Amino acid sequence: MAREAVSIDDGTKDYIPLRKKYNSKEPHIADQPMTWGNWYKHINWLNCTFILFIPFLGCIGAYYTPLQLYTGIFAVVYYANAGLGITAGYHRCWAHSSYKATLPLRIYLAAAGVGAGQGSIRWWSRGHRSHHRYTDTVKDPYSVQKGFWYSHIGWMVIKQNPKRIGRTDVTDLDADPVVVWQHTHYIKSALFMCLVFPTVVCGLGWGDWKGGFIYAGILRVFFIQQATFCVNSLAHWIGEQPFDDRNSPRDHVITAFVTLGEGYHNFHHEFPSDYRNAIQWWQYDPTKWSIWVWKQLGLAYDLKQFRQNEIDKGRIQQLQKKLDQKRATLDWGTPLDQLPVMDWDEFVAEAKNGRALVAIGGVIHDIASFIKEHPGGKAFISSAVGKDATAIFNGGVYNHSNAAHNLLSTMRVAVLRGGCEVEVWKRAWSESKMLMDSTGRRIVRAGDQVTRTAQPVPMVSTVS
Ligand SMILES: [Zn+2]
Ligand SMILES: [Zn+2]
């Protein structure tokens, strides 16, 4: 019986370009191996022109063009505005809907963002949603698993098969006239906001047409592109992973400084619809500060924020995982249920034959290597050999420290059959079943060692 193809309706659909449809019948060039005969077909020449060739020419131009003070100041101010267009607009407003912006703010963000030369809101957000949905997989359009440089710039310089990129839903963006207008008029608006506008401002403002074109236009766009690309590369490469280390996003202050606050990327991938990237007041996140100011001015509303309770839960779980990993590297002694059982008589006989065995809490320890190092002196510890020293170890002679109980556990060699047996196995059960970490290893908390008793206990011979 022929099976019908089942498509799961998960609310997403394949991305349909608004203007041009690619021919889906021919195999895409990205799916063909690169050879000497076809390498130039693999290159995305349009992207190369905008992100490599023009900046290169700009650098040459800058060598022959002195930088004027006003042009420099304007370039920096315009850089910050275009940067915000990307971080507060493209990223946090449109790609993640982490807050709502009024029409004047959306127009400003769309116009400023176009001036960063990073594609339309619609194209950018679609790729970014895919990046979040399929992080580190083959469907991630800029997966860092394909290498640092691929995630930074390679994915734009080399043609990608759009069908490979994980599908996402952009219907909400198609319903925003600002997004649709910007997408349909992208090339014209990009040329205007990237190059014409800064040239005209510097030219009409203080007569520096050439400097405006090179510094406030070409080189400003180049720097802002490289800064944003760092979110895809650097933010998945360097830094801490306080919330989840099962995929690549990381938090680092350097990435935050480079990207107007987008550097707390481990947090961001965990809580993508939070309007913040940095959650501490002292962390650098000017994008968050701007959104907050816009809210005060009535330009932004519905700022989304995860409850601190949820954030702390994630942080604690990751801390617990790190603790478990650290614990696994330590010697906690052989687990009780893996130790052989020894009779009292056998224990006494072995001790008489010269083995330095001591019974404490129903567990037999071989203390031969430790006798000389015993801080309480050789005499006391030697006198315990061949005996049940539970009481003297727990206060009868000296109430040993937590560290002493920990050290003692590394000397375990057997479990004593006899009076303490039931109690010991009950403890063994609790040790193995009740206190396990996520990797199935036993947790021994301070004061919970099997050799520790709350009160000095009578000798084994008197236990019924
Ligand atoms: Zn990311
Ligand atoms: Zn994001």
UniProtKB/TrEMBL annotation:
Q: Where are the transmembrane segments?
A: 43-64, 70-90, 190-207
Q: What is this protein called?
A: Acyl-CoA desaturase
Q: Which UniProt keywords apply?
A: Electron transport, Fatty acid biosynthesis, Fatty acid metabolism, Heme, Iron, Lipid biosynthesis, Lipid metabolism, Membrane, Metal-binding, Oxidoreductase, Transmembrane, Transmembrane helix, Transport
Give, as one word, the top-level EC class.
Answer: oxidoreductase
Describe how the cofactor binds: Expected to bind 2 Fe(2+) ions per subunit.
* Topological category with respect to the lipid bilayer: Multi-pass membrane protein
GO molecular function of the protein, one example?
A: stearoyl-CoA 9-desaturase activity
From the Swiss-Prot or TrEMBL record, state where the protein is found.
Answer: Membrane
SUPFAM superfamilies from the xrefs? Answer: Cytochrome b5-like heme/steroid binding domain
- Which GO cellular component terms are attached? endoplasmic reticulum membrane
What family does this chain come from, according to its entry? Answer: Belongs to the fatty acid desaturase type 1 family.
- Biological function: Stearoyl-CoA desaturase that utilizes O(2) and electrons from reduced cytochrome b5 to introduce the first double bond into saturated fatty acyl-CoA substrates.
Give the source species: Aspergillus coremiiformis
Q: Which reaction does it catalyse?
A: octadecanoyl-CoA + 2 Fe(II)-[cytochrome b5] + O2 + 2 H(+) = (9Z)-octadecenoyl-CoA + 2 Fe(III)-[cytochrome b5] + 2 H2O
